[in-house]
Amino acid sequence: MDQGIQQPDFSLMANNLSQVAVHLGRCAHLPAIDGGVYLAQTLQTVLERISALERTMVRRFDESDRRMNSRFDEVDRRVTAANKNSTARMRNSVVTRRSDDLSPLYNAISGARITRFPRKLRDLENLNEDRVNAILEELEEPVEGNADERKRWLKYAVGVTT
Question: Is 120 helix (H, G, I), strand (E, B) or coil?
Fold first, then answer.
């Protein structure tokens, strides 16, 4: 045989073909090769996470909005009750005779008229200890001291100055 003709190196060719196969396998994830499937899957995952985050934020904003509205309603009730009580106390400040009518007061928290509020000064003076305590609590006034001190405090809280 002619020595000038080079013989093929089958071992080298097999190795090179093996390397080509490895690198071709790595091409499977390229967007141009897999039709963008991997990129689309990744984008879908990102969009799902953004949607979940958006739902969470909307839910939290809604919860916060409800809490704030509840607090505003509570403050509104308290301010309304305080205004009504201020007017009633002003009217009650001129009550001097036991037979004079009292203007009723309102619960400091709920804003509702205090039930069984004494109609006359004599009714206020004749309240039992439990009723005195209950009215003081509804007005958010301190319930301290002996029975006479609490009754005197209730008269002040009602606006009676005599």
Answer: strand
